[in-house]
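Sample A.
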Amino acid sequence: MEGKHKKVLQKCTVYLIQNLSEVEAICDHLVVDGILTQGQNNSIKTKKPAPRAHISELLSLLPRRGPNAYHSFLKALDETENTDAAEYLREHDGSKSTTVDTQVAKQQHTEQPEEKHKLQSQNKQDWPNLSKRFALVKIDDIAKCTEKEFTTKCGSREEKIYPMKNVKRGKFIMISNAECISKDTESKCDVEMKKAATYSQQCITNSDFDKSNIGQLFKCMGYDSKVGNLVNKPKEEIKEFLKKTLSEIDKDPSSQYDSLVIMFVSGKNDSDASKIYDASGDEVPTTDILEIIKACHHFEGKPKVVFIHTYNLEEELDMFDSTDSSVNNIIKNCEPNNDDIFVVSSYPRTGQGPWVVGENMNGSYFIQGLIHVFKNSACEKSFIELLNEVNACLLQAVVPKLTEDGKIKTVEKKPVAQIVVSEYCEEKELYFFPGFVQKAIEK
């Protein structure tokens, strides 16, 4: 960060501590821009008392987060209803803008400035839209389920549908070990080492965005994620953390969760799809995780969803998963269970890696596909229907393509990943009913 911007932040510290709001959203925006790591974001949120300690910690970190940190911070303020604070800083740094300037800046952030860099598809339903980066999910992005829609879905079938009507729709737990493990670079030339380092940083930025955005999705859908985040631990600590978290829910008489969602994010070079890895790259057996989940009495008879996202951190993949399936529907590698458990992952269908391909794009196909479908369709479709829709997006994803002259960019549709269900239950249907809370019956 430039010296003058450091001085501005120091001079305005008291004002910012007294006036900033939506600090978590500001930090999430900075994670998306690659200014903060997810670990730093999590650390900020643990400081007390909130929000003053959160703001102080953020302001102490920003000067050390690179030349773009100040302008990214201003942009985050503009996009989180902290425009007065943004203008206050601009007054002190000499770049005070007009309202029109601010609106233009916002538009330039969401769109590429030059038309030749836009990769817009003809069909608005095509996914992803390569003309702009994915944004963090906001509460207003979630299509809400109305009482009429709820009644239509349930009706006389209520006994065949999981009851998802409490304010606390569920508990969300994130366990992440997506460390970018570098290969031995001693024999590589400087150019290759620099390329490997650049790709490693891209992996970190993309995985941080994935984790922030999927957590934000379920938060906006009514899930509690407090004390539900574990990062970069060995397998035994992962299992103990999960046991402790679920045991505390069992012991708490005020717990009223309708469901459980756990997201495992892990990655290493030469990983196998749909497997969980710890911080050292050792496999964490999925069967061990499921046994821990089954032992939690609070979630007996309630839906328990486990998402497993495994990043293969190779820049180019030499081969696909062992099935190399050519079918276009969801792959089901199991028989139905009676434990109300659903385990969902994905297999790669492209040699380009897990990240969304496109200029200035962010995140991975699997996670961003889930978010895209869930925020738009969870209000009316069952969990399995949602997965089928995600699968359709992944099998017909819009990707950049160069013409024969190698200059003009066009787009094409091609498979990038495929949904895999390794555990599912057919006894009841799972609907999330976002935004719907059943009113108490008056006596």
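Sample B, a different protein:
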Amino acid sequence: MATPAHVAIIMDGNGRWAKARGMPRLAGHRAGVEALRKTVRAAPGLGISYLTVYAFSSENWSRPKSEVSDLMGLLKMFIRRDLAELHQSGVRVRIIGDRAGLQSDIRG
């Protein structure tokens, strides 16, 4: 079977995963980010040229304010920690969709 050139990932269920294990939802979101980091780094070696990540739906804005803040904090952490290295590796990151609710330092 040939490796697909483009893979799409829907980040869903991280909070439920954590809750089922007696952990706070944020721990699940953090685990999801770490899994995504590993996936992004592994993709080129697997022959995957394009990744699309669906990470935050419009319905997520209706979550508790503290959870939305935690999710935005994880996105900011990704930008600070990983973005420059990804660019140096030839990875282009684009935030698409309705970015109106995002803070200016995330909006891109």
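Observation for Sample B: The chain has a mean pLDDT of 90.
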